[in-house]
Design a protein that fits this description.
Pfam families: TrmB (PF01978). InterPro entries: TrmB-like, Tscrpt_reg_TrmB_N, WH-like_DNA-bd_sf, WH_DNA-bd_sf. By secondary structure, this protein is an alpha+beta fold. The protein has 2 domains: 128 residues, Winged helix-like DNA-binding domain superfamily/Winged helix DNA-binding domain (Arc Repressor Mutant, subunit A, Orthogonal Bundle), CATH 1.10.10; 152 residues, 2-Layer Sandwich (Endonuclease, Chain A). The strands form 2 sheets. It has a 7-stranded mixed sheet, with helices on both faces. Helix 9 links the parallel strand 5 and strand 6. Helix 2 runs antiparallel to helix 3 and helix 5 crosses helix 6. The protein is elongated.
């Protein structure tokens, strides 16, 4: 899947969040009025989809009021009356608000589902336009020969790993740590590689992790290798013997983990991948030998 196509698939997530928060903001939960938290989250979600703060507040107010005058919207939304008119006009231009010419003028927000669909269409159009134009501007794919690139943040490391797995043609090797949460988010790399139909090898630190991988993503070839105690290494990803991602997990505060990775694709990456792959091959050969011995012993019995 193309990088921009991935963004388009993922772009529906904020829309679902907006719909959920708006509906909570207009409903009675457990015999009580909706909380300020629901209103705040709805406003923040709408802002993430392109509305300005006052526009988002006015729309949430109209969702709660069903319909109202500028004075009523101003009071519920906590927006100065002088800014309400401008905000409501902009919402009307975006197809989110209807106006009834009366004295005083009244405003009505479209249904939550209609609003979300309208914003989703706008958001998708922006993504498609960005993708098309950026593709035209792109000179060539990144060439990482003899270079390291640093990636910070767990989500960013995961996404960069997804890119490497998507380019795999023959083999993907995932080296896992003992950290349960890191194993959780690394399972997606394994499943992604299996879905692509390439050979998928997993180096687990313990038999327990090996069992978990075999249970949750069946199809991967999993083996166990002993690690040194106290290691701070995170996860490692090797793709086709030339691309490598090496991460380190740091804990600046108790219960707070930060992940940083170095990525290389090409000359340096090939050499590092080769070194790690040599170790993996030794363990795989041992695994095959152990399996053969077990079969022979069963035959003797």
């Amino acid at each position: 899947m193309h990088r921009f196509d991935t963004y388009l698939v993922c772009s529906t997530t904020p829309h679902r969040a907006v719909r959920r928060q708006l509906k909570r903001a207009t409903s009675i939960q457990f015999n009580s009025m909706p909380t300020n938290e629901h209103r705040t989250r709805a406003v923040e979600s709408l802002e993430s989809l392109g509305l300005r703060e006052y526009e988002a507040r006015c729309f949430v107010a109209l969702v709660q009021l069903s319909e109202g005058t500028a004075k009523e919207v101003s009071k519920v939304a906590s927006v100065p009356r002088s800014r309400v008119y401008d905000s409501l006009e902009k919402l009307q231009n975006r197809g989110l608000v209807d106006i009834r010419e009366s004295n005083p003028r009244k405003y009505r927000g479209v249904s939550v589902d209609t609003a979300i669909q309208t914003l989703e269409n706008e958001f998708t159009n922006h993504l498609e336009t960005a993708g098309e134009n950026l593709t035209e501007l792109q000179v060539s794919p990144h060439n990482g020969d003899n270079e390291f690139w640093t990636v910070s943040g767990r989500e960013n490391v995961t996404e960069r790993g997804n890119e490497l797995v998507d380019r795999a043609e023959r083999e993907v090797v995932v080296v896992l740590p003992e950290d349960d949460h890191v194993v959780d988010i690394s399972l997606a790399w394994i499943q992604r590689a299996l879905d692509a139909g390439v050979t998928t090898l997993v180096d687990a630190p313990t038999p327990a992790v090996r069992h978990r991988v075999e249970s949750e993503v069946p199809g991967a070839q999993v083996f166990v290798s002993t690690r040194e105690d106290g290691t701070t290494l995170g996860r490692t990803l090797l793709v086709d013997d030339h691309a490598v991602l090496l991460s380190v997990i740091d804990e600046p505060l108790p219960t707070v983990q930060e992940e940083t990775a170095v990525v290389s694709d090409g000359g340096v990456g090939t050499r590092i991948a080769s070194l790690v792959e040599d170790v993996s091959k030794v363990r795989r050969n041992e695994l095959v030998a152990e399996s053969t011995t077990a079969v022979d012993a069963a035959d003797d019995d």
